[in-house]
Amino acid sequence: MKKFIAVMVVLMGLMTACDMEYGTAEEIEIGNVYDYDFEGSEEIPEFKTINDVRIYLFYFNRKPDSEIWGTEDYWQTPKETYLLKTGDCEDFCLLFSYIIKKQFNYNPELILVSNNNIFHVIVFIPETQQYIDVILKYILDTTPKIIKKIPYEKALWMTINYHELVGKYRL
Q1: What DSSP designation does 27 have?
Q2: Any residues with CB less than 8 A from the CB of 11 and at least 6 apart, and which?
Q3: Are 11 and 112 a contacting pair, CB within 8 Å?
Q4: Residue 56 falls within a domain, yes or no?
Q5: Considering only 23-27, 37-41, 67-71, 101-105, which range has the smallest mean pLDDT?
Q6: Quick check: is 126 in a domain?
Q7: Stretch among 7-16, 50-59, 112-121 having the lowest mean pLDDT
Q8: What is the pTM of this model?
């Protein structure tokens, strides 16, 4: 239960922090966000469909941040998730979003959802109207109970530029 509460606080803290004014929309747009790339990303295969991206990520390991980073929650960059081949829900959502933004030119949103007081991060693709649970390996056929939406670029920008703050919130 403590972990659940801590994860909830972290997710809400990040989502709230992303609502704060960390530069103008123009600064975010012309910054390294849309051009975000990393050494090694050229090794990511070209995919024909979104489902192919999901299948590719199935082979990565799912581990809690406490095992990887020794902290309750830590939002990895797409580079970290790709190189480590491991992460948790928001890490997989950021890497998935990075790939579909780059290869399909979609504009994904990270979505904090709740189901019976269990909080989780999934991806929404406005262009296809799909809610995709990247870590649990399925596309949702109903609209989940949405707690907060955050555009991929905003989440990525926060993760990169305020990386030392992301996932460091404590109760």
Answers
A1: H
A2: 73, 90, 112, 119, 121, 148
A3: yes
A4: yes
A5: 23-27
A6: yes
A7: 7-16
A8: 0.75
Domain count, the chain: 1
Place of tokens 């189901």: 115
- Residue-number span of the structural domain to which 35 is assigned: 2-161
**H-assigned helices in the chain:** 2-19, 25-28, 50-58, 65-68, 78-84, 89-104, 152-161
**pLDDT digit string, tens, across residues 91-119:** 999 999 999 999 999 999 999 887 777 77
Q: Is the pLDDT of residue 14 over 90?
A: no
Tokens 């989440």 correspond to what residue? 155
- Residue 119 domain flag: yes
Q: CATH number, domain at 118?
A: 3.10.620
**Amino acid sitting at position 167:** G
Please state, in angstroms and as integers, the Cα–Cα distance from residue 143 to each residue in 131, 140, 167, following that order.
7, 7, 27
What distance, in Å, lies between the first and last C-alpha atoms of the chain? 13
Listing DSSP states for 71-108 in one string gives SS-----HHHHHHHTEE-HHHHHHHHHHHHHHHH----
The answer to the question of residue 171 being in a domain is no
Angle of helix 50-58 versus helix 89-104 axis, rounded to 10: 140
Structure tokens at 68: 């990887």
Q: What is the mean pLDDT of residues 61-89?
A: 88
